[in-house]
Amino acid sequence: MGIFEARGDQFIYDHEPIQLISGAVHYFRIVPEYWRDRLLKLKACGFNTVETYVPWNFHEPKPGKFRFGGMADIERFLRIAAELGLHVIVRPSPYICAEWEFGGLPAWLLADSDMQLRCHYKPFLDRVDAYYDELMPRLAPFQCTKGGPIIAMQIENEYGSYGNDGRYLRYLKDAMIRRGVEVLLFTSDGPTDALLQGGSVPGVLATANFGSSPASSFAKLREYEAEGPLMCMEYWNGWFDHWGKPHHTRDAEDVAAVFGEMLAAGASVNFYMFHGGTNFGFCSGANAQLHNHYEPTATSYDYDAPLDETGQPTAKYGAVREAIARHTGVSFTPAVNEELMPAPAERIAYGVLEMQEQGNLFGQLDALSEAVRSTVPLPMEKVGQSYGFIVYTTRISGPRPMEQLHVQEVRDRALVFVNEAFVGVIERAEKEQTVSFEVPAGGAELRIVVENMGRINYGPYLKDRKGITEGVRLGFQFLFDWSIHPLPLEDVSAIVYGEAAVKEQKQPFFCRAHLDVERPADTFIDMSGWTKGVVFVNGFNLGRYWSRGPQKTLYVPAPLLQEGANEIIVFELHGTTERAIRFTDSPMLDGDVKSQ
């Protein structure tokens, strides 16, 4: 057993002072086969602690249906950390932000039109309690007080950036303690008056999140935490990417210099991120600081971290390790490196793969999902869907002259078809977008394919229902009587394929081919020439691609491949100038922009 506490201005572990040098590594963004590799590299860099969030929606995808296996096997992750002698800081929801879909909150909460989030609202707290009943008993045995690696756990996350409900925060604290949490509890917020006032809990250690100016940030923290160890719980040493924006980078020497300043001041530090990983599937979130100024996060969560998206050390890794060596006096000898540092993962460029089979979307909607009939076009959450796409179909009488189609509050991107002919895209934007068309005398079928690009994960617009959230008008007339097909694409095995078409595509389509592999290795799929969609490898959703960039390739970890034939499916929304995808041995990004 171990005792970890805040005593005076120091952290104490087993009666000895300890300065935490921690790095964020999210198990849910890494295939389990690579968890040990990433944690070994953390330790080899001189870190003594690993920090991870716990996303509620990853563990309870449907109400009362929990999963703690595969990539969700947090207990396995904790065991590996313990085996490697690493301390663990756990930040266990209900909200995590993390550029993760809905900030880790389950989308099904939004099926209740009256739901209030992140406050002392009983229906919300009832769901949190049910989740904690499952989660906390799994974490409790791993506490240092029980001989495990967990030394501290967080209450909520950056709550001062959202609200000021102290009763809610105290409820979460008590809920954790009632379920056996004994380790040090803490909060983390930005270093400003409002944020620290709104997010702190009396008697609970407050920590700060920032990327620069540690002296002034810690000075502000000291105004609210008169005594106790100083800790930067999120040192933003890189940043995340949005679709359509340049890739963010930050100079390695600048990162190491700010880090060294904090170490010299005696502060403990948690790198956010040490290794970012990948937003596989539909797990990436989005930002919107102004209403409908919507910025979805890319699939790669590289974060310009010390370990890149694939787990390989960057220049930042070396600079950070040198800073640790200067401060601690630890010498990183070749012998130590050989013992701790895993060999680089093999990468193989498997070459060009021609997509030989094709299945158009509209002809097999009924095979992919059961239609829901509704007078109005319901949002995803009202039909029991969390992620992916949703298709709305109705009939319009004719004739009608050219008129504008208005999709009121589209979330987030709609493709509009009239009699299966593509007429345009309506995207979520600050200024309303419309498309226009005529309706012939015999009437027309209107079909709208809406993509959920990721729920907002930070700020005042968290309540981000997806699909068509209000209604559809042609001119001033609302359209009623809809057939709705949810397309979460959790299972793509029902798709029927024919020969791949050569002509220009008129509707979204699936393509399939099989990649023959003699030796599975890390690889990347280059989606140049394709427009927008999703790629599946052996049924595993790699995530979104988009020609807007900055991301041009999708990372395929070796454990997703198998010897022999591997099924590759591409769901393309628009069309392609290629009939093939290319497997390469390196990622491709567009440009870079310096982050602060």
From TrEMBL:
Ranges of residues in domain Beta-galactosidase galactose-binding? 508-566
- Is Hydrolase a UniProt keyword of this protein? yes
**Pfam families named among the record's database cross-references:** BetaGal_ABD_1, BetaGal_gal-bd, Glyco_hydro_35
Listed under catalytic activity are: Hydrolysis of terminal non-reducing beta-D-galactose residues in beta-D-galactosides
Q: Which GO molecular function terms does the record list?
A: beta-galactosidase activity
Q: Which domain of life is it from?
A: Bacteria
Q: What family is reported?
A: Belongs to the glycosyl hydrolase 35 family.
Q: What is this protein called?
A: Beta-galactosidase
